[in-house]
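Box 3.1. Reading complex inputs
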Amino acid sequence: MLPRGRPRALGAAALLLLLLLIGFLLFDGRPREAAARDRDPQTDHRGHNRSDCVLLRPLPAKCELLHVAIVCAGHNSSRDVVTLVKSMLFYRKNPLHLHLVTDTVAKNILETLFHTWMVPAVWVSFHDADELKPKVSWVPNKHYSGLYGLMKLVLPGVLPPALARVVVLDTDVTFASDIAELWALFAHFSDEQVIGLVENQSDWYLGNLWRNHKPWPALGRGFNTGVILLRLDRLRQAGWEQMWKLTAAQELRTLPATSLADQDIFNAVIKGHPALVQPLPCVWNVQLSDHTLAERCYLEVADIKVIHWNSPKKLRVKNKHVEFFRNHYLTFLEYNGNLLRRELFGCPSPPPPEAEQLQQAVAQLNAGDACFEFRLQQLTVPRVHLTFLPHEPPPSRPNDVTLVAQLSMDRLQMLEALCRHWPGPMSLALYLTDAEAQQFLHFVETSAVLSARQDVAYHVVYREGPLYPINQVRNVALAQALTPYVFLSDVDFLPAYSLYDYLRASIEQLELGSRRKAALVVPAFETLHYRFSFPSSKAELLALLDAGSLYTFRYHEWPQGQAPTDYARWREAQAPYRVQWAANYEPYVVVPRDCPRYDPRFVGFGWNKVAHIVELDAQGYELLVLPEAFTIHLPHTPSLDSSRFRSSTTYHDCLQALQDEFHQDLSRHYGAAALKYLTALQQP
Amino acid sequence: MLPRGRPRALGAAALLLLLLLIGFLLFDGRPREAAARDRDPQTDHRGHNRSDCVLLRPLPAKCELLHVAIVCAGHNSSRDVVTLVKSMLFYRKNPLHLHLVTDTVAKNILETLFHTWMVPAVWVSFHDADELKPKVSWVPNKHYSGLYGLMKLVLPGVLPPALARVVVLDTDVTFASDIAELWALFAHFSDEQVIGLVENQSDWYLGNLWRNHKPWPALGRGFNTGVILLRLDRLRQAGWEQMWKLTAAQELRTLPATSLADQDIFNAVIKGHPALVQPLPCVWNVQLSDHTLAERCYLEVADIKVIHWNSPKKLRVKNKHVEFFRNHYLTFLEYNGNLLRRELFGCPSPPPPEAEQLQQAVAQLNAGDACFEFRLQQLTVPRVHLTFLPHEPPPSRPNDVTLVAQLSMDRLQMLEALCRHWPGPMSLALYLTDAEAQQFLHFVETSAVLSARQDVAYHVVYREGPLYPINQVRNVALAQALTPYVFLSDVDFLPAYSLYDYLRASIEQLELGSRRKAALVVPAFETLHYRFSFPSSKAELLALLDAGSLYTFRYHEWPQGQAPTDYARWREAQAPYRVQWAANYEPYVVVPRDCPRYDPRFVGFGWNKVAHIVELDAQGYELLVLPEAFTIHLPHTPSLDSSRFRSSTTYHDCLQALQDEFHQDLSRHYGAAALKYLTALQQP
């Protein structure tokens, strides 16, 4: 319980004492908005425009672990959670344990994200939302959060029995202060109180918004459940499950479905048991809903703690100060999440085991080594956000092929054309900053071609370190392909329009699934012209080749990269033919999804595909060239990453060192037979 | 004066009162680091890991204007100031007045920056550092800050006489909290105290760092002057100027030059007059110098307020926790400054007059207008950071020419080649995000070619809004050209190696300065190939043209853009020849620096150069084609900005509407004669 006065005179101890007493006496425990604001223990010491202040409030103990629960389902909410978590981590000074109630999609995304984020002093557990559906699906609900909104009601039964207190957050809130200050409000709960809530900042529950608007029952304006403090221990003891179910069942006799999901039920229960609720200061849930009255809260205190985008319009909500709130939100939307991988001072916590291994490996690097940057980049684990945009996994088909590629911002222009050329599933990894990921999102949303495709999975790998970890990024795309076969392409290639169908037919014909371990080679060509009419058949392609409008890929600079494909034979070929591996061969191939990964030691540019083909050959993959398949490289400006390093001698020396190590590892894995790869390279 | 106790039990009012009294008694006013820390009025309420807290401290009055003084000279310090100011603005809740003591370079940069930043409730005044030099130049000084470091000593005489209090900051500090909390510490000054400082967190002044190390005198470890609270009124009254001069002169009799600039002198004065200083809590100046003892401060309090990068190594300083501090710094280095253009709640302040006019203009736009985005973009004033990197203005030469162009991140690759082709001065405007500006900085610093050039001025125009404001960006580059003539180029063109010399000779020959009002046309060509050997003469160029390796610029898509140049005549020409304007003509020209600006209404892509040539013709510029001049366009991937909009019909409709308005404005300015431009367009 929190007494507090508002002395305006400076430094007078006597007055302070008097006001402390008055503060005690003033407290009346009723959920009035103004009273809640006045009682705000925070307002005084951080609402910097008061002349004096007294603070009497227990803060969490040093290094106390704070628990947060969030219900999250689907691709879009998973993105929202990341922004919420970034804002929370930016201001936090305590260790945190996140309890995430997720559907399969959100679990897949967030598990990988937190695993690769490796933030010190953050623990994450997952609870299966799908298992909880039967517990709430009997409640008819019209709110946009669907069934998932209702799941906040069952948290006391879902979270570990030993967990006594938890902060529950909606995915659409943004922190502007340290969550420890919110946690501290638990200390003000009376013995009876079990739930802390901020009053609603709209007139919804007053039932006067429009004619015949009949909301669920609530105390006055009712409470908003975007930010909740739950005393789980007391809720369990008090038989919460029975309590809310009875209330809901009873109201549903006379009322239609809930309009605001869990919030209607929480409010109905509180209406019947007002002693359960501890009203929280309004700054802890500044609600930017339509018709919001939030201004009454924040204009006085000037110190906002949590912003709640609780309108279906979200950032597009109309509000006099929305610019201010939007800027705060954008700060964290675009914030480089890598910067949040920072220790908690005075609160040492062991890093996650993987992080510790990495730190040890980094510590063993020799900073004097000319290739230090290369080795450091190899050891860097980038943060990964899988399926950044909504994605429908392809139906299970035995010969289906996913196009796998990676790209960065300077190749976004390729995506529409790629979608037109490849009607099948794609798994694309994008190497981006957090801010670029938002530009990418906007790019897809404003493209009719891209937003029509649900079978293209976009995985964001967040930029970190000076060298481009091309093979790490490729491996993310490869690992996420969901069909039995993958076409390992590069984003600046456009496949023949017929390639997707032709590949599936070829896989079936060649009985790859059962009989042969093979990599199907798709012959690669290039055009040097931006204006270019794509050949619709092999015959047209050959005509262009003869006319000098097309070349075989890298014909002028690096013919050995494609030479074994034997373009002369391909011209005439009617059936697939086998070719032999040779040094520096780097064809574009179709292989089973469980093929070897790309070697992540090759960072920056050079040899990253060559090494992969060596690995395929070493593992006994036949190389079969398909007679009707082709793909064409389009011209583009050389990327900054490549041009920066191609000119440096260090780069060339390090690439040589990496190749040597690669060959040593090959011999270790595949024995003396693997010596052929080194020997082949050494031949003139 | 600040009493404070540390009760650990919760909620016991009696104990609190007792501790308050003990707090009063404990206070001893001596500059011991531990005492300073213990007395920290902030530690308790924001060092969240204490169990309880009492806060008795006056905060600035609601909306009180806080004053900050910073000495800043040169290009690099100007960039540092921006990061410092961003961190300050992020946490501030009060109006601020910045008093900047600047040299000419810093004034030019920061005046434009703040003028275009238009942050509400921030005022900036400038004081000329060069005028102050004589006041401090008699003090010999070895510190890397040079003469400018010493200028903090003369602030009481420089700042307005009515100004009583000011926070003085070094350019290498970063805020991690609200500056109002620092300002609040003025209230703890006793009647005698005139200066608030944090103790040094190194043993420098103890004189035991190495043998024969003889520092200037100081009390114990002395104080650090990276963050200073100055009672200007009292300093003036106490005859501060006399005081520091006498002390410095006296010490200089036995000591060599100052090693730490103003800091040595402040400490020497304090050693003689300890009553002048109010020691501040160490968290207000966490010093990351070499040999720092800062850990003693921050490991206990876990709540850092201001970070001071006071080692010449800056971010590369070795420190166990440097990763944490660096991440905090990078947060603001890369922070989108546009997001700080946010109102102060509860503290309304009139926006700067320009901002108000803009707001009114924006309010008058019709959001239903299909071209709303175009009109909004035109009204957007982008933040501009002139000469982002060190730059030497070219010596004054009567016929000199500056190459003017604009670019964004995807054209950085062009810069090295451009530098090789154009040995003269350049003024380049870059349209970038804050984070990209840092990548750009790194790009230049790691390029031997670019970092060798001091005559290339890079002006950063910060991205804002959905459309590319190409003409606004061009105008920034044009306005900053310092030679009498400018070559208005585009960044994807490489000029003939001889062009710079040839243009200057032509200007002299044609007597452009005195006799003729002319635009010299540089004929434009293009190659569609990335591999391309640049012609070293007109003869070579013509051979390539005949061989089909080169084309005239946009020969295939838009020949009318260059047609009036009359390439057939150019082949044979031996002397400059005059050509007539025709519809859609957009040659690359050399004109006097005071030529008309580009029309900023053309945003996105299309017609942005055409309109400029129309304007030149309307103003009576002769168009003279130079017989030996040429420039060649290199191929590149179409930019995202252009490809996104070229396909949209709205874009085409709006471009048409903008053209119509342009023609209307032309008639208004130039009368009936200007009708010819519209008529020419309408001809088939």
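In summary: Chain A has 27 helices and 23 strands.
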